[in-house]
Amino acid sequence: xxxxxxxKQAVAFEQRKHVDHCNCFGCRGFYYxxxxxxxxxxxxxxxxxxxxxxxxxINDNCSFAHLGDVKYYPKxxxxxxxxxxxxxELWNDIGLPYEERKQIYELxxxxxxxxxxxxxxxxxINDRRxxxxxxxxxxxxxxxxxCSLKDYKSxxxxxx
Length: 160
Hints:
The chain is α+β, with helices and mostly antiparallel strands. The chain has 3 domains: 1-48, no CATH class; 53-106, no CATH class; 127-159, no CATH class. Helices cover 38% and strands 20% of the residues.
């Protein structure tokens, strides 16, 4: 959980304040409420607005379009693929916030720490991330190095 968000996660119990590090959605069950809600939004996008091939991962959504299939988006004064513009307009209509920095329209798209090139159907990691991963694996596998379970989990997370 992000340190600044932890301030919002403090709970009082027996006159002491505690930070709930597992509570990133407001309460334990809210994650499931969020998934239900975003699934409903994706259903609207697919069946009511007719945006096909929508891919969703938590709060990241992506798709693809033919070259030149663009529509002007006045809020950012930029052309985006038509479906992306329709998607952003839906979010505006229902009042859902989104970040401008995540509205990406490029030939190679960074997506969950991967570089996705839909034109050649390839997913890769950039050289900096690859070097970082190789360094972490070498450090982990040094002869005589004793690792804790936390170290194993950390490396597994990085490899994932």
